[in-house]
Automatic annotation (TrEMBL):
One of its GO terms (molecular function) is S-adenosylmethionine-dependent methyltransferase activity. Keywords: Membrane, Transmembrane, Transmembrane helix. The chain crosses the membrane at residues 7-29. Residues 77-174 form the Methyltransferase type domain. This is MET7A protein. It comes from Menura novaehollandiae (superb lyrebird).
């Protein structure tokens, strides 16, 4: 019975990660994770993920210039900027507002900003995707979100905020890992890893069916492609990539 094997294997994984569970119980893991571990590990995983996703991102962001505003400028807001690994794909002269709930990525962020001086960096906001109140309604031409919707508290609230800050005719770009096919081994392992993975990787959920949230959001046009990224030894191979127009 799949349910029982999932629980048994979850318990084994929890035993392996026992020190982390203990630190979490003592209230010490989350601050350490946010400040030190997560920025460090995301940098390392990010390098691999960036290599594997590069051609998909080039393809995804190719039509960004089509969404320039009436003034000819492209105002872009990125949710969960992290270390800024998407900067290289944005067109020259693009005005970027960075937001992240975690302000501890400064080192890798400033490294990527130096590398990408073809952009204008407008501001950096410490903000959750569900609450972008510092950004006026209908004020940006494009919103970008990669590997972020897996860990927001509410996907639907985040998408509501995306639609609020976008001007009519603006576009939301996404590339996210998602739940595997339910009958597959991949999904079985996603279920096994779920609780420990979520604890270790700052709230990242493995089994979200994000395409459903995107279909429910009120985009006038939505392009979604299901892809698989070869990330050995990780439960995050299935991804979706695409964009929605307000």
């Amino acid at each position: 019975e799949a349910g029982a094997s999932v629980l048994l294997l979850r318990a084994c994984l929890a035993l392996l990660a026992l020190p982390i569970y203990l630190l979490s119980f003592l209230g010490m893991w989350e601050p350490f994770c946010r400040k030190v571990f997560f920025p460090f590990i995301l940098d390392k995983i990010g390098i691999v993920h960036d290599k594997k996703s590069k051609k998909h991102k080039q393809e995804l962001f190719r039509n960004l210039p089509d969404f320039r505003g009436p003034s000819g400028e492209l105002k872009l807001l990125e949710i969960g900027t992290g270390s800024g690994s998407n900067f290289q794909f944005y067109p020259p002269g693009c005005k970027v507002t960075c937001t992240d709930i975690n302000p501890n990525f400064q080192q890798s962020l400033s490294r990527n900003m130096k590398k990408n001086q073809h952009l204008h960096y407008e501001q950096f906001l410490v903000a959750a995707g569900e609450d972008l109140h510092q950004v006026p309604s209908s004020s940006v031409d494009a919103v970008v979100c990669t590997l972020v919707l897996c860990s927001v508290h509410s996907v639907s609230s985040t998408l509501r905020e995306v639609l609020r800050v976008l001007r009519p005719g603006g576009a939301f770009y996404f590339l996210e890992h998602v739940a595997a096919e339910h009958s597959s081994w991949k999904y079985f392992w996603q279920q096994v890893c779920y609780p420990t993975w979520k604890l270790v990787f700052a709230g990242c959920c493995l089994t979200r069916e994000l395409w459903k949230n995107l279909e429910e959001a009120k985009f006038s046009e939505l392009k979604i492609q299901h892809i698989s990224l070869a990330l050995p030894w990780t439960p995050i191979k299935p991804h979706i990539v695409g964009y929605g127009v307000k």
